[in-house]
Amino acid sequence: MIISERLPAELAARLSGYRMEQDAIGRSTASVFRLEGEGLPALYLKVEEAGPFGELADEAARLGWLKAAGLPCPDVIARESDGERNWLLIGALPGTNLANASVLTPLARVELLAAALLDLHRLPISSCPFDHRLEKRLPVAKARMEAGIVDEEDFDAARLGKSAAELFAELESLRPGGEDLVVSHGDACLPNFIASDGRFSGYIDCSRLGVADRYQDIALACRSIAHNFGEALVLPFLIRYGLPAPDQARLDYYRLLDEFF
């Protein structure tokens, strides 16, 4: 593929013998390629433009921390940058993401998602060096808006037609009075959780992991479940997680915040 001609020499040598196929699932700003070769372990290569809003360095740091915390996630194999592009090479986890794991029933998949979030949310926040509380995330959301990288055409249906500036004003005016802090995945959608042989096998796309309100994850998880499986499976997910009567205002707020990322 063309991308192989642009790889740094050391990375290109490491990937000799691999075939690359682009992975289109997800909304990451990075391009993602699955790499396979005869007799070689499967890998993923992520590529992004270098710049102030790049996320691959964040992802590498968080994967290293999560692995050290004892939770399953991909191994970081190599990182490269030439000032124009950043590359991140990681191992592939066994199994299939929970959006596509059709060997499992939808109910089994939402229960695995709930259990995976519980394991993550039980980690002590004092051990996590990544601070994604609102006092940190709102300035980042504003900076992304001012840089023109918030896609107003990709807003949820209820917000289509509004400007990013209007939504940011809502973020400020509707900000919750407090936060129920946990170690949050940050993008807790079904495709970012992997299962193999009926068991959870790991977290992926962890560039937004950090200490945040648990509703950062619950809000996006519920939205993802409704989108993939229908509203009927949202309540079983919430019951398995232990939050059968969630705060609707907080669900709405963290979905609003996600429009900026």
Mean pLDDT: 95
Q: Based on CA inertia axes, which overall geometry fits?
A: globular
- What's the number of helices? 9
Q: Would you tell me the structural class of the helices and strands?
A: alpha+beta
* Radius of gyration, in angstroms, nearest whole number: 19 Å
- CATH fold-type name of the largest domain: Aminoglycoside 3'-phosphotransferase, Chain: A, domain 2
Distance between the termini: 29 Å
Number of strands: 10
What is the CATH class designation of the largest domain?
Alpha Beta
Largest sheet: number of strands, sense, barrel closure? 5 strands, antiparallel
Low-confidence stretches: none
- Helix fraction bin: 25-40%
Strand content: 15-25%
Biggest sheet: strand arrangement: 1-2-3-5-4
Number of domains: 2
Give me the CATH architecture of the largest domain, please: Alpha-Beta Complex
What is the string of SSEs from the N terminus onward? HHEEEHEEEHHHEEEEHHH
Q: Specify the CATH homologous superfamily of the largest domain.
A: Aminoglycoside phosphotransferase (APH), C-terminal lobe
Enzyme class: transferase
Active site: 187
Family: Belongs to the aminoglycoside phosphotransferase family.
Domain Aminoglycoside phosphotransferase: 24-250
